[in-house]
Amino acid sequence: MMVRNGMGPSSSYDDRTIQMNRTEIASNYSADRPAEQDSLGRSEFATHLAIALRTVCATDGLVVGIEGGWGTGKSTVIGFVKKALSEQKNSEVKVIVVDFNPWMVSNTGVLIEALVTQIAAAINLDSLSPEKAVKVGEKLLNYVGLLRHLKYLKYLPGGGFVGHIAEDVSSLADAAGSAAKEAGEAVGDLKKVLPSLDLATRKADVAEALRELGQPLVVVIDDVDRLPADEIRIIVQAVKAVADFPRTTYLIAYDREVVAAALGNGNTASGNSYLEKIVQVAYPIPPLFQYQMRTFAGKKLQGLFTALGLELRSFEAAAYAPALSLLAQIARHPRDVVRLANRLMLSLPATRHEVNVIDVVIFEAISQRFPELREVVHLHPSDFTGHPFRDDTTTNDQSRDWMAWASLVAARDRGTAGWQKHLPKDEADFAIAKKACEFLFPSTDRGADRVPEDELHIADPDRLARYFRMMSLESVPEAAYIHTLLRHPERLADALDGIEMAMTLEWAYNYLPSCASPDICGCMETIVTRAKQATRATEQTKELIELFVKVCRRLIAMAAGDARIEAFQRAIEDAPLSISESILLEAAAEQGKWYVHPEKQKPQKDQLVPDCIAVDNAIKIWSERVRKALASDQLHEEPRMHAILYRFAQLNYAYDEAYEGVSKVCSTDEGLEVFLAVYTEGDDFGWMSHYALIASPQEFAVRIRGSSMNAQYSWFAKKLSDPQFSQAVEDQARRLKNLKRPPAALPSQ
């Protein structure tokens, strides 16, 4: 496991969270309640609806429906309507708004009683005429009392109304004949009850009192679709048959599909037909355009980022706009965005600096909409990232057989992503999930020479695992820790002294692009110093050299202006020749200075080092270092000696000098052994370029036979002695010696 210099997994998280504004964070959690600010342009619709309701209230009343699915903003529109109704002009009659929340009634049996009682209470609180309000309240409460006395639930519209009244009356008649002694009392009770059973009279009294009150009523009933089916039926029937008072308009918010299913006992068509008889005017919630949802989501995210003190890095900011457009498609309604913001209040701080912020936003959004897909990503990361989680035996991918692996490779060859088989079956859901997966787990490269680790994408299995754990992983260093090393080269030096130098270099390379303000020149100094130490300690392998080259190249590419030239010069002047050769070759080739592959020339803006003079000077400095290494008999110690000699010859058009260098290297058996190591019996060296460092094959064969290498390389000496082959090698050497440097070209554009 990698040494972390005391920077444990939890400490970095605590350090960053302690800086957060806790009050701001808490205020950004959104409860499921109506919005008070008009973020979606709904207030104008609500104002016009309020005007219409005020006009309707002057007549016999109406039932108006606000229709929309869950989370579409019905309650918010209702809130705007109530606000608009309360802002009437002086010349307008004041509307009494009655709020009835059926959720507050715990007993289904008293829903209607509670509704009528709430109307009475609202009138007494908001009436312009207290005397008339008291009268209306009295009539309403008498009406409620009768409903209670008659066990009104039996008398809701339906075939049993008369029958149930008969049952109550007959029970009194039975009691009258039960005993002679009690007969008189029972008959008396019966005579008293019968006149009071006139429900129509009581209701007419309420209607008359409401007309005399002279103020219209708007009864608001929200969240009807959240009620159980039997309570939905009770409320809708009550509005139509029990509480249909004059000058009273009902404004009901509901999901039409849910309510229709309840009214039709599962038969939506029948329920819709019944609902149309109850609701005279239905207003669907105004649909949101994509730009509205995008704007709404953008405001939520920006508020969240501010509360968390989170500033997008350049690579995250570049992906923000397309991600926001995708988020507007994933979110079905505003409530999805609000709930997503709540989720991000946890996941963003927990993955801060470790996982790409934009990826976290999109993955949380897709997880919220398709929780099954989130679970599949966790169980089968290989289908999404191409690799299982590191050192994780809990996922199904660890036991994946070779046939499954071959199937995955074949799918990729066909251009089919491995994750497609896990997407939802519904066509619309499939399309949205596919867009999200293409964004998060692209099957093609994000760009040349770029991998998911560069920008902390969750397409990197380590970053995906870090996201799922929401905490540090034992087998993977925190990106924040590597970023600290890159900002403090002295700490990087300590880490490179550990036993896992190669792993440290790999992580440094991976997380350089996501590091804010790395010390480029300081890191280059540290890397070069460590590379030289590795050379002296004979630690240099070709694999380790490639790692050093990758890190140095990326450091140069990330630097700007003079810092880039300084970092480049440091690598050329001091890095081991095997490392500096690769860096120099790339810089020279991109400026068209490598005749072997002129097609590698790039526009100046895309060059690793866009300064011709700096590259020309680097070729001179590096070439002098090669000459010194040859003179001191040290060149054969370089793991990439052949590449160094090739590059010396090619960049300087100096094959004569290169051949002399080969002769000097091979003058000792130690040097000869290193030179011959690239040639293996049985390998097919069909290209003549493999022998471009040999000027005289016959002489070279003689040198082999006279050395301690003869037994091992007699086959090679024989090959070089073949007249036809020997002639071809000599012709090639003659041609290479005659190569001339072209006239100085203008700086690359």
Q: N- to C-terminal separation? A: 47 Å
**Runs with pLDDT <50, length 5+?**
1-21, 150-181, 393-405, 745-749
Which CATH class of the largest domain is shown?
Alpha Beta
Beta-strand content: under 5%
Number of strands: 5
Number of domains: 4
Query: What is the CATH H-level superfamily of the largest domain?
Result: P-loop containing nucleotide triphosphate hydrolases
User: Could you say which overall geometry the principal axes of the C-alpha atoms support?
Assistant: rod-shaped
Helix/strand/pairing category? mainly alpha
**Which architecture of the largest domain per CATH?**
3-Layer(aba) Sandwich
Helix content: 55-70%
Q: Please, how many helices?
A: 35
What integer is the average pLDDT? 81
| Major pleated sheet | 5 strands, parallel
Q: Tell me the strand order in the biggest sheet.
A: 2-3-4-1-5
> What's the CATH topology name of the largest domain?
Rossmann fold
Rg (CA only) = 42 Å
Protein name: KAP NTPase domain-containing protein
Organism: Cupriavidus metallidurans
Pfam families: KAP_NTPase
Please describe what this structure looks like.
This protein has 749 residues and is mainly α. The chain folds into four domains: 41-151 and 199-284, Rossmann fold (3-Layer(aba) Sandwich); 290-391 and 417-469; 477-652; 654-742, no CATH class. It contains 35 helices and five strands. Strands 2-3-4-1-5 form a five-stranded parallel β-sheet. β3 (217-221), α10 and β4 form a beta-alpha-beta unit. α25 runs antiparallel to α26 (542-558). It is rod-shaped. The two termini are 47 Å apart. Residues 42-345 form the KAP NTPase domain. Pfam families: KAP_NTPase. This is KAP NTPase domain-containing protein.
